[in-house]
Amino acid sequence: MAHFHEIDPTPDRVHWGYFASDITPTLQIASGDIVTVHTLSGEPHDMPPADSGYTILPHHLEVHSATKRGPGPHLMTGPIAVVGAEPGDSLAIEILDARLRQDWGFIVILTKYGTLTEDFRHEYRRVVAIDRARGVIHMPWGLQLAARPFFGVIGTAPPPEMGQCNSIVPGAFGGNIDNKEMQPGVTLHLPVFVHGGLVSFGDGHGAQGDGEVCSTAIETAVSGTVRIELEKRTRIERPWAENSTHLMTMSFEEDLDEAVKVALRDLIKLIGQKSGLSPEDAYLLCSVAADIRVTQVVNLRKGVHAMIPKWALEPPR
Questions:
Q1: What is the number of other CB atoms lying within 10 angstroms of the CB of residue 283?
Q2: Cα 36 to Cα 32: distance, rounded to the nearest angstrom
Q3: Cis omega before residue 140 (within 30°)?
């Protein structure tokens, strides 16, 4: 029987700005358990003015005052240890739901990380109103956006030899993936590098476009419920994901062209595993049925995700 758990983002359950293999787990679960994770987004300078009328969550202020900041900006809830997880295994994280937690978010042009740093040389930020009941984000100039909340950060602990990793930079352990496809119905597969896996969540986004070009999405607090399954001895090298319609591989490289190649090679391999096609035929199939998408270009390592519809892998009738 699966057990149900819930984690609030209290100071003792949040690590700020980094991933590492030596963070003490805040929760231990069995494979198949279901966890509701509550997260926060925003550092002290991201908070709306006190007279703005927006509601600031009490945990937000507590974390800011009682948690030590690492090299990055993200507030991650966790980590969660899975009993029996060992290096060489993987964790299958099924996203069951994702919900907005507050009535505001923010979006920022960060000159150091944005795509057009030569064009936009000054930091620029806006606070946006969120109608949680309607699932609508109100942009300052009047546009209404449909909210599609998701966790921008989902990651296991990196290998011990990597030490403390800046939360901005995604890697083989996942982390700051910023993939807008991580919606309810998706199962994300992450490599395990340390005992327990140690998976954390954070960086809630209310809405994001592919690329995340100005350096942020609609940053906001998000709650999500996930089912975490242990997969033994899979020896995957990077995250991959699936939903009811597609398989998806992901890569993170400093060079965008290299990121495309890594994601495509992983997709060719995955197609072979799922369908039995030769690498040559899988490569042909990718050219006519797969999509190569730019996940984000602002996290120092650029992200690419390659998607193939599952119908293309079905045997002929």
A1: 16
A2: 13
A3: no
300, 255 Cβ separation under 8 angstroms: no
Q: Which two tokens stand for residue 253?
A: 């490289």
| Cα–Cα separations (whole angstroms), residue 132 to 98, 196, 226, 257 | 12, 35, 20, 39
The CA-to-CA distance between both ends of the chain, in Å, stands at 38
Q: For residue range 57-87, what is the model confidence (pLDDT) as tens digits?
A: 999 999 999 999 999 999 999 999 999 999 9
- The DSSP secondary-structure symbol of 273 reads H
pLDDT tens digit string along 6-32? 999 999 999 999 999 999 999 999 999
pTM for this structure? 0.97
Q: State the residue for tokens 């963070």.
A: 23
The closest alpha carbon to 228, from 191, 188, 194, 180, belongs to 188
Are residues 179 and 69 in contact, defined by beta-carbon separation less than 8 angstroms?
no
Q: For residues 289 and 191, give the distance between their C-alpha atoms in angstroms, rounded to a whole number.
A: 27
Length of the chain: 317
